[in-house]
Design brief:
This protein has about 350 residues and is mainly α. It has 17 helices and 9 strands. β5 and β6 (about 275-280) form a beta hairpin.
Length: about 350
């Protein structure tokens, strides 16, 4: 539905209560005292509201101007930072910018959820006051008018997710430059939108998805069950083909991209760059044998490097874990301190 068809001549919108504007209580009280009661009243010449200070009047004027444009079917397109600046007083906008690290290019979701104590320190307020400011900001942004203005932002985010197969992790999202965010961090922007409307964008195991957490839980269970039954590393395409109908993405979206993102972020899983997956405790020796078969006798450090080079970053393992895996496999022998090889008959590039 376009902005024009959603608002032009929409009596339902015009008759919405004034609170749907997202304006702060003091401004709402001044408008009601002047006789304004509906959202559509913002489309008329505004009353003087002499009790409002300059900042409050500026906020009222810009929200009313946007509302008038929306009612005429011509709402200006806003990027994320413009959207925050339009509907929130500077203090509340600053609280969200700090909380979600919108100016921080970090490619990790955890780095875009600042602690309330840190936000309060930067704003010069207590931890509790910082919590209140964030709650007030979300209370305003979840109203009808701000949510309508945010719809293009949600559509851009959902388009990015859909183009990636329904899921994007922070590392893949961080480099994406999208005008919709106005220069803000894409990871911080996605996280803010996900917390604003969790049913639109879901945060699941350190990645973002357009699918519900219930569906993702179902996919994860099917994935773990399939890997548990496998005898070794399994092609992701084979896992995708065997998914039950209840765990397949809708609308013809291929399952492999979602499975890969999920596999990369599940604990205890190995996801290889050549499109296979398995259980770390069970299948690490298989991957180590493949490396030894190709390279021959190899020192532990080189073996760890080669092992991790075959995996996605989230699945990599340290030398202690791999040393234990080497000792568990009777087909791998230690030829010298810190050096490993396969028996002579297995030193070949042919598949094991």
């Amino acid at each position: 539905m376009s902005a024009g068809t959603a608002f032009s001549g929409s009596e339902a919108f015009r008759d919405a209560p004034l609170q749907a504007s997202g304006l702060p209580p003091r401004i709402l009280a001044a408008l009601r005292a002047a006789g304004a009661v509906r959202l559509g009243d913002l489309c008329r010449p505004l009353p003087a509201c002499e009790k409002l200070d300059a900042d409050q009047r500026a906020l009222l004027d810009r929200v009313a101007a946007w509302c008038r444009a929306a009612c005429q079917g011509r709402p200006p397109r806003l990027n994320l930072l413009e959207w925050l600046a339009l509907f929130l007083p500077p203090r509340l906008a600053d609280a969200l910018r700090l909380h979600y690290g919108l100016q921080d290019p970090a490619a990790a979701i955890a780095l875009h959820e600042s602690k309330l104590r840190d936000i309060g320190f930067q704003l010069g307020v207590t931890r509790e006051r910082a919590r209140q400011l964030i709650a007030l900001a979300f209370g305003a942004l979840r109203q009808t008018l701000p949510l309508f203005a945010a719809e293009p932002l949600f559509r851009d985010a959902e388009t990015a997710l859909r183009s990636a197969g329904g899921a994007l992790d922070a590392a893949s999202l961080a480099p994406r430059a999208d005008p919709a965010w106005g220069g803000a961090s894409p990871v911080g922007a996605f996280l803010l939108l996900a917390h604003l409307l969790p049913e639109r964008i879901v945060v699941y195991r350190d990645f973002f998805s357009e699918f519900s957490d219930v569906f993702l839980d179902r996919v994860e269970k099917a994935l773990r069950d399939r890997l548990a039954l496998a005898g070794g590393l399994l092609p992701i395409s084979e896992i995708a083909a065997a998914l039950p109908k209840s765990a397949r993405p809708p609308r013809g979206i291929p399952a492999e991209p979602l499975l890969l993102v999920l596999l990369r972020h599940l604990p205890g899983i190995l996801a290889t760059r050549d499109g296979r997956a398995g259980l770390a405790d069970r299948d690490a020796p298989e991957l180590l044998r493949e490396i030894l078969a190709a390279a021959g006798e190899t020192p532990l450090r080189a073996l760890v490097d080669a092992f991790n080079a075959r995996l996605w970053p989230e699945c990599r393992r340290g030398s202690g874990t791999l040393r234990a895996a080497l000792r568990r496999d009777p087909r791998i022998r230690q030829t010298a301190p810190g050096r490993y090889a396969l028996p002579g008959g297995l030193q070949t590039d042919l598949p094991l």
